[in-house]
């Protein structure tokens, strides 16, 4: 089950902790840098479990799908990744950042 809610009404870190307590494998995506019109500020979080469920937001919906896909690989291989998306990047149109801006997101396995 995939859940999406406003990042203002939930605590992704608390959710990550509860998912870990339930025995779920979890990755955390954190916005580390933005430029231009990126919709979420640095420090925003998205928590993802191994079955693809996620809560929080790193971009207001622009790149969440790509981040969730990368998080699945991080959960499997345990190797953190730095992701970058933006209008100057060849992935901009595929992930939906056509509105402008750039975003860097760090994805790491928590357990």
From TrEMBL:
Cross-referenced InterPro entries: MoCofactor_Util/Proc, XdhC_CoxI
Taxonomy, superkingdom: Bacteria
Pfam families xref list: XdhC_CoxI
XdhC- CoxI domain residues: 19-86
Protein name: XdhC family protein
């Amino acid at each position: 089950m995939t859940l999406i809610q406003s990042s203002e009404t939930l605590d992704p870190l608390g959710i990550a902790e509860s998912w870990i307590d339930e025995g779920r494998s979890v990755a955390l995506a954190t916005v580390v840098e933005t430029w231009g019109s990126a919709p979420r500020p640095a420090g925003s979080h998205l928590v993802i479990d191994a079955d693809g469920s996620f809560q929080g937001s790193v971009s207001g919906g622009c790149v969440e799908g790509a981040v969730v896909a990368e998080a699945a690989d991080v959960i499997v291989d345990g190797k953190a990744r730095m992701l970058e998306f933006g209008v100057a990047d060849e992935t901009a149109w595929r992930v939906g950042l056509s509105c402008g801006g750039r975003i860097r997101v760090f994805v790491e396995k928590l357990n």
